[in-house]
Specification:
The complex is a heterodimer of chains A (308) and B (769).
Chain A lengths: L6 H5 L9 H11 L7 E5 L6 H16 L3 E5 L9 H14 L5 H11 L3 H14 L6 H9 L14 H23 L4 E6 L6 H16 L9 E7 L2 H8 L6 E4 L7 H10 L7 H12 L5 H11 L1 H5 L1
Parallel strand pairs in A: 1-4, 1-5, 2-3, 3-4
Helix pairs in contact in A: 4-8, 5-6, 5-8, 6-7, 7-8, 12-13
Chain B lengths: L2 H4 L5 H7 L3 H16 L1 H9 L8 H7 L6 H13 L3 E3 L5 E3 L1 H13 L1 H42 L1 H29 L1 H18 L3 H15 L6 H19 L3 H12 L6 H17 L3 H17 L7 H14 L3 H18 L2 H17 L3 H17 L4 H17 L4 H13 L6 H17 L3 H15 L4 H18 L2 H18 L3 H15 L6 H18 L2 H17 L3 H8 L11 H14 L3 H17 L3 H18 L2 H23 L4 H18 L5 H18 L5 H13 L2 H15 L5 H13 L4
Antiparallel strand pairs in B: 1-2
Helix pairs in contact in B: 2-3, 3-4, 3-7, 4-6, 7-8, 8-9, 9-10, 9-11, 10-11, 10-12, 11-12, 12-13, 12-14, 13-14, 14-15, 15-16, 16-17, 17-18, 18-19, 18-20, 19-20, 19-38, 20-21, 20-22, 20-34, 21-22, 21-34, 22-23, 22-24, 23-24, 24-25, 25-26, 26-27, 26-28, 27-28, 28-29, 28-30, 29-30, 30-31, 31-32, ...
The chains are: A alpha/beta (308), B mainly alpha (769).
Chain lengths: 308, 769
């Protein structure tokens, strides 16, 4: 969704975030790079505040640590489950924070213009010059399956060329990303990991995490990835043998009664009676109702203010 | 509700948590509470849980009554301010997952609500389908202005292309999702297949990939009997996508897992098997493809789970034989395919197979069989209903043009006009097929000037687009120049074609074909013999890798001819071998020609005469008049050298006869009356073949056009024959008899006399259904 400003950036007010300090400090520890941990996995059931917590992390990156950050709600990709789309969104957000993506940009412009000749030339120049992971000759050969790119005219643009070009854009994205992360901290936050297609998950787990983050020595980059989702911890522990790079938050912590009261307050649910707040707080602590359900119940209680 | 009202629900938490299904209890409370505030709000809360994303206009679509704008706007504003409604990155909204699940669970709890949910999903699917159709129109329009826009404002093109792509894919995926939620096993599967196949046919595999991904995600949660079947379809389409992406290895890997699935629908297994064979054919692994098809046929001989489509496997086998240029095996497979179409009562396919059989037989010189089968196909084409009638009629026109147009230029013009009338304007592939078939007929009849004119027109129409079709036209031009005797130009053209094919990586087959053509032309030019050798060697390697025996043999013959021309007769004989390679594969004439010349050069004149006679017979049988004349002339020369004067005189007689026929062909000019008649006939056939809102009027008009055609040119039998079918549709039996009699009389003395005469009985017995 490269043309759109992420909608919730404007809506978000840091004052609306209730507590989550212990979890936030785990994240801030990662930003100090004192350990080899580069991935924070936040696992909890639906409705327990993971998405709001991730917004808090983005806020901390942007306002407290001045670190480029991209927050990606994966459930919003249900109508176009495409890793290229996901990457484009990350690129858009990080570019706004000052991270350059020169190889990706050049390739993507050529791709969108369906300009095969430009694509081959630009790629050869750009990628070689910046010592990225792929060489121009290989690129020309793999996109258009031609042996002698210099000896022939401009190849036609085909659907297959487009597919190959996208794959190369994805490679260029990773090369650009790690180039920046070798010099400065970059954070990518992926929300609702379970709410996406198998292919997108595979790209995240295999291409991004396994092939890049885990395969690159921790001393060589400052890229932090935060992932959140239901049952994420078992998913990750069964998938990866070496968990030294991971920090797990297996469930978001419980609150004090005043935190619960504050939650209703920030959502404009101000008419609740004290015993209702206490009752709801008790149910939250007992994990009988989630935060989202508690908000819904509070909305019913305070009907007059909420429904009209 | 007020705080006072909330006093009435002090035990809400308890009632929710203590409920057997807390989710449903919470959803019920939410809806009830909203209902107290406003029935419209309650409706919105409920329906907003159905789509994955929503805005005001979408929710308006989902509620049955039409509130005022103000009332709706107020309710919608309340809805999106609720703490469990989330704003998406695209500016639309969605329910928080937990609440959405609760509301959907409530829908699922009661039969009436389940029905309502299904209706809402169907309504959403219809809405997104309509959006997708609109987006397709916009995408088409964008494609037409894309080039211009790129020159004017490239930056805008980038943004617009991305927007157009999104507008196309997103509604399609949403439509598919809601069809699937409403009815995964039937409507969902059907919509996915239809959409996938549409974009596959358009070569937009990017869309196919996204569709398959999201559909797989949609069906992941389906339980019950249909789950396994859907999983099998998912694998089948993975195979299909991999084949379309030319990733045969991956396709076969998934296919082997799919066919090993217990309880797999036999029809799906067969379709998968056909894909596997197709992937091998695409890689030019013909021997492997043939093995797969033969195994499949054996399997189906024992127990065929899908008799109506049995013909498909024979047709695929025939296609492999055709690609291997094994005419006899091709004809045998087509005969079995024909039998299977007849057993299944599938007349559309029967017509298609008859046309292919006719083409194979004509190539083998079995002209009587070829004409009989062509007329049988024509009969089916004229008695089918649209739109099958149009497809079959065009296949017939192309086949008649290709196989009989060289010997009968009038027939070529007539059926070319008919085929053009049956081609839809934007179908470039079919357009090129019609025109290159016409060019082949013109070339055979030595009408070179006209053939170049036609190719020039095709070039203009194609412009810089349609690379695959352009390659076919390039090959066609090279062959034409060669046939015309403009060999050096043909060489230049063939070199260009080889470069084009290499540049595009058009596949080993295209490259080997282009190299073989190049070598065949170069071997006739003294200073290009080295080039001929290197082209032939490259082609030979490629053919060998493909297991294509004919290609290898043909390259060997080229090497033999080059050796002969260099006076290396031992080398020539080694390359030739002791007898023509691969009988019935159309190589005999070229083999005998070189063998005869080698023998003549070595003064083995009797052997040379025998071989050259064989060339003459073969080329006469297959209607290659120019090659036959060339063979007759060389035969005369050899016979004179051998002192066999009487035989030489007889050969001169044959040569004279051939030259007279060639002269007549070259003198042929299409008269304006004939052209006019063909136009009338072409229109009539179109009216008989395509769907019309007033079919009776269309048939009457066709009959009138055919009258006009006969007035303009009473010669050809085809106008009367077509008219017989028009009368058949009008139920005018007397006129049918008269028309078929006239057609038979006009066909007298031609190869079509007997087949057309035999139609009289069939037409009399035919009952129009």
């Amino acid at each position: 969704m490269s043309l759109l400003e992420p909608a919730d950036i404007k809506d978000f007010d840091p004052a609306d975030i209730v507590d989550r300090e212990p979890e936030a400090s785990r994240f801030q520890n990662l930003l100090e790079f004192a350990t080899q941990r580069r991935i924070l996995a936040v696992s909890d059931d639906s409705g327990w505040g993971k998405s709001t917590f991730l917004k808090k992390l983005r806020y901390l990156c942007e306002y407290k640590h001045n670190v480029p950050v991209a927050l990606i709600p994966l459930e919003d990709f249900d109508d176009r489950p495409d890793e290229f789309e996901l990457v484009s969104d990350i690129v858009d957000q990080l570019k706004r924070a000052g991270v350059p993506f020169p190889s990706f940009d050049r390739l993507n412009i050529a791709r969108l213009l369906h300009d095969a000749g430009l694509f081959v030339d630009r790629l050869r120049g750009a990628v070689n010059a910046e010592a990225a992971v792929i060489s121009g000759g290989q690129v020309a050969g793999s996109i258009f399956n031609i042996e002698h790119a210099d000896n022939v005219g401009v190849p036609d643009w085909t659907d297959e060329a487009n597919r190959q070009a996208k794959l190369l854009c994805l490679e260029a994205f990773l090369a650009d990303l790690f180039e920046t992360a070798s010099k400065r901290t970059v954070v990518i936050i992926l929300d609702n990991v379970e709410h996406t297609t198998e292919q997108l998950r595979r790209w995240m787990f295999k291409t991004l995490v396994s092939d890049r983050i885990l395969a690159t020595p921790d001393a060589e980059h400052k890229l932090i990835v935060v992932m959140a989702g239901e049952k994420l911890q078992p998913r990750l522990t069964s998938r990866f043998e070496d968990l030294a790079r991971f920090d797990f938050i297996s469930a978001l912590g419980t609150w004090e009664p005043e935190d619960t009261a504050r939650l209703f307050e920030v959502h404009g649910l101000n008419g609740l009676l004290p015993h209702q707040v206490i009752q709801l707080h008790g149910s939250i602590v007992a994990r009988e109702v989630s935060l989202t359900s508690a908000l819904a119940i509070a909305a019913i209680y305070t009907g007059g203010a909420t429904w009209k | 509700m007020t705080n006072g009202q909330s006093e009435r629900t002090p035990d809400l938490v308890e009632s929710v948590t203590a409920s057997p299904d807390p989710q449903i209890a919470l959803a019920a409370q939410l809806v009830a509470s909203a209902q107290e505030a406003s029935p419209l709000l309650a409706d919105l809360v409920r329906v907003a849980s159905v789509p994955r994303k929503f805005d005001a206009s979408l929710l308006r679509l989902l509620i049955d009554h039409q509130p005022s704008d103000e009332e709706f706007s107020t309710a919608f504003s309340t809805l999106i301010a609720l703490p469990f409604v989330v704003r998406r990155r695209d500016g639309k909204y969605r329910m928080h997952d937990e609440i959405r699940r609760a509301l959907l669970a409530r829908f699922a709890a009661a039969a009436h609500d389940r029905e309502l949910l299904r209706t809402l999903n169907e309504r959403l699917a219809d809405h997104y389908e309509a959006q997708h159709e609109q987006a397709r129109t916009v995408a088409d329009q964008f494609d037409t202005v894309d080039d211009l826009l790129r020159q004017v404002s490239p930056d805008r093109v980038i943004a617009m292309r991305a927007a157009v792509e999104n507008q196309l894919v997103r509604p399609l995926i949403e439509a598919q999702h809601h069809r699937n939620v409403a009815d995964p096993a039937e409507a969902g599967l059907s919509y996915f297949r239809q959409s996938f196949e549409l974009y596959e046919s358009e070569g937009r595999l990017e869309v196919c990939r996204l569709l398959l991904r999201s559909w797989r995600d949609d069906i992941a949660g389906v339980a019950g009997d249909s789950a396994n079947s859907l999983h099998d379809w998912d694998m089948y389409y993975q195979v299909r996508l991999a084949v379309a992406e030319a990733d045969g290895h991956h396709a076969r890997e998934i296919a082997s897992k799919l066919v090993a699935q217990p309880g797999l629908d036999p029809k799906l297994r067969m379709q998968t098997q056909a894909l596997v064979t197709g992937s091998l054919m695409a890689e030019c692994r013909f021997a492997d493809a043939l093995k797969e098809t033969t195994a499949e046929i054996a399997l189906r001989d024992d127990d065929d789970p899908d008799p109506p489509n049995r013909w498909v496997v024979f047709a695929q086998q025939a296609e492999i034989h055709r690609l291997l240029s094994d005419g006899e095996a091709q004809a045998a497979s087509l005969s079995r395919a024909l039998e299977a179409t007849r057993a299944a009562g599938n007349r559309d396919s029967e017509a298609a197979i008859l046309n292919r059989l006719s083409a194979a037989q004509a190539k083998q010189g079995r002209i009587a069989d070829a004409s009989r089968h062509a007329i049988q196909a024509l009969h089916i084409a004229r008695t089918l209903r649209p739109p099958g009638a149009a497809t079959a009629a065009q296949q017939c026109a192309i086949q008649l043009m290709r196989s009989f147009g060289s010997a009968d230029p009038r027939l070529a013009d007539l059926f070319h006009t008919e085929a053009v009338h049956l081609t839809r304007g934007h179908d470039i592939h079919r357009f090129v097929r019609v025109e290159t078939s016409y060019v082949a007929a013109l070339r055979g009849a030595c009408r070179f000037e006209r053939a170049h004119e036609v190719l020039d027109q095709v070039d203009v129409r194609l412009g810089d687009q349609h690379p695959l079709e352009r390659s076919a036209v390039l090959l066609s031009r090279g062959i034409l120049l060669d046939a015309e005797g403009r060999e050096r130009e043909a060489v230049a053209r063939n070199r260009h074609t080889v470069e084009e094919v290499e540049r595009r990586r058009g596949g080993n087959w295209s490259l080997a074909a282009a190299l073989t053509n190049a070598a065949t032309t170069q071997m006739h030019i003294g200073d290009l013999l080295d080039d001929a050798c290197s082209s032939a060697d490259r082609a030979r390697d490629l053919w060998l890798a493909m297991g294509h025996a004919r290609g290898v043999a043909r390259a060997d013959v080229v090497r033999a001819e080059v050796s002969r021309r260099r006076a290396d007769y031992a080398g020539a004989k080694t390359a030739l071998g002791s007898k023509p390679p691969l009988e019935a594969m159309g190589l005999e004439d070229i083999w005998y020609w070189t063998a005869a010349n080698v023998a003549a050069d070595l003064d083995l004149l009797d052997e040379a005469v025998d071989h050259m006679n064989a060339v003459l017979e073969l080329t006469m049988r297959t209607g290659q008049l120019r090659d036959a004349a060339r063979a007759a002339a060389r035969l005369v020369e050899i016979l004179l050298h051998a002192g066999r004067q009487d035989e030489a005189a007889a050969a001169v007689g044959r040569l004279t006869d051939l030259m007279a026929r060639l002269r007549k062909l070259r003198q042929y000019r299409q008269e304006s009356a004939s052209k006019q008649a063909d136009e009338h006939s072409g229109r009539a056939v179109r009216q008989l073949s395509i769907a019309s809102p007033r079919p009776f009027d269309a048939v009457r008009s066709a009959a009138q056009h055919l009258d006009d055609a006969q007035s303009a040119d009473p010669g050809p039998c085809w106008y009367s024959l077509n008219q017989a079918y028009a009368f058949l549709r009008l139920g005018d039996k007397k006129s049918v008899s008269k028309a078929i009699e006239a057609a038979t009389a006009k066909a007298a003395g031609t190869t079509f006399e007997e087949p057309i005469a035999s139609l009289a009985a069939e037409l009399a017995a035919f009952a129009w259904q």
